[in-house]
């Protein structure tokens, strides 16, 4: 489904939790901004939260890129937090899983 169709398809939907893990790695610029604003503004309940992740540029991530020719957009914790804030996110918390490959962020409206 193209992103631009989501507001029409989901116009009557509201969620307590919106999870977008594994997709931000492939988005940049306007599509990324659109998705984050849509998640935070259009389909998230006032008391809801989002959880998103993005791969950071680590030695392990670089190995995956070389082995599988896996071209993705890497983001460190501070950039991920800034993008969420620019999309309207509040109460942003960023965690890093034990291997340090994926910063995981939560945010509210």
Indicate the topology.
Elements: H1 6-9, E1 15-20, H2 29-42, E2 44-53, H3 59-68, H4 77-86, E3 90-96, E4 103-108
Parallel strand pairs: 1-2
Antiparallel strand pairs: 2-4, 3-4
Structure, explained:
The chain has four helices and four strands, in the order αβαβααββ. With 109 residues, it is of the alpha+beta class. The chain has a four-stranded mixed β-sheet with strand order 1-2-4-3, with helices on one face. The chain is globular, with a radius of gyration of 14 Å. The mean pLDDT is 91.
Q: What is the first-to-last residue Cα distance?
A: 25 Å
How many strand units? 4
Shape: globular
What's the oligomerization state?
A: single chain
Placed side by side, the strands forming the largest sheet appear as: 1-2-4-3
The gyration radius over C-alpha positions equals: 14 Å
**Proportion of residues in extended strands:** 25-35%
Task: Give me the secondary-structure category.
Answer: alpha+beta
The helix/strand order is: HEHEHHEE
Number of helices: 4
Low-confidence stretches: none
Main pleated-sheet profile: 4 strands, mixed
Rounded average pLDDT: 91
Give the fraction of residues assigned to helices.
25-40%
């Amino acid at each position: 489904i193209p992103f631009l169709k989501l507001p029409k398809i989901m116009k009557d939907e509201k969620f307590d939790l919106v999870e977008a893990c594994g997709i931000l790695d492939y988005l940049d610029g306007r599509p990324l901004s659109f998705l984050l604003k849509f998640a935070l503004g259009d389909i998230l309940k006032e008391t809801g939260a989002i959880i998103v992740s993005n791969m950071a540029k680590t030695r392990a991530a670089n190995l995956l890129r070389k082995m599988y020719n896996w071209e993705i957009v890497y983001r460190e914790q501070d950039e991920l937090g800034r993008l969420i804030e620019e999309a309207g996110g509040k109460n942003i918390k960023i965690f890093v899983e034990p291997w340090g490959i994926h910063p995981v962020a939560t945010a509210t409206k």
